[in-house]
Description:
The chain is α/β, with parallel strands linked by helices.
Amino acid sequence: MTSEDSRLRILIINPFGIGDVLFTTPIIRTLKDNFKGVRIGYLCNRRTAPILEGNPYVDSFFIYERDELELIRKRSFFLWLKELSIFLNKIKSENFNLVLDFSLNTQFGFFSWYAGIKTRAGYDFKNRGRFLNKKIRLSGYSVKHIVEYYSDLLKYLEINTKYRCLELYLKEENVAIASRILTENGLSHSDALIGVMPGAGRSWGKEAYLKHWPPGYYAQLADKLIEKYDAKIIIMGDFLEKEIAEKMTASMRGRALNLTGGTNIVELAALLSLMKLVITNDGGPLHMAVALGVKTVSFFGPVDPVAYGPFPPEPQRHIVLRNNLECSPCYRNFRLDPCLKNKECLLGISIEEALAAASRLLI
Length: 363
């Protein structure tokens, strides 16, 4: 395929969370730069689609929600089959000739095969790549960042990733809404605005607490930032994290603006873009802040920041804090070992250490 090939139509498949989708953005930009006239379609879930909708390099979207289809299947097999056929035929109608499948899932490889996509590139994890005809063996993400693993698939196009930075494009109306929220709460862009995310991500479901630096620690850190820098603390997060945010505010001496659950995902992104600093657990919002060019302090426990941390790793802009134990990381090859140390990897990160990290970035 040459740089003048205007017939190249690529489908990217990534059904995972916010961070995983943002990790594909350097690839999207590289493809648009290398192939004149290339069309890019993206298969993702409903929650992550808004993160990509402002991206000028994505031409079409396919929203796949397995749980929604499963509910239909339980009511009627024939209705499920009809809905699935409509979805797959929509993909087929775009005549893609290449898929980059990041799903690690046999199901999506079948979708690509059914849609008649000639070149199907992806990862063969636990022999799940049987419908792929260009595949890389994979046992997990460990020795390098996921962005770099994802970029390995470009070898089938005989190109290298040209861009390294994650990209998140905001619409003017979303930034205007974020600015209005700040103004209505007596805040301005000139304030020392610090976004705090004591939850930061739903991808681990009921086990998400294993990635959380304690709300009480966040409260003490926030109070010290208020005292030292006259910081304006804005607490943000998903509506499922409201209890965590309330625990934090209940433990604070100072005041904070708690917006947890009060914004949609693009409004959250717009608010993050206005912060001087974002302090957060490992999760999707961390990568949103990184993609928006905002400085971050992040707490990592069971997950290895080498693979899942801010990318590109820039210590002058993004500081990762972790208490490295002999059992770290306990999340390996997509499996989480039982915690035998009572979250010492996170509890061992002191408030003073976090304050010092935030101070380095603020100064």
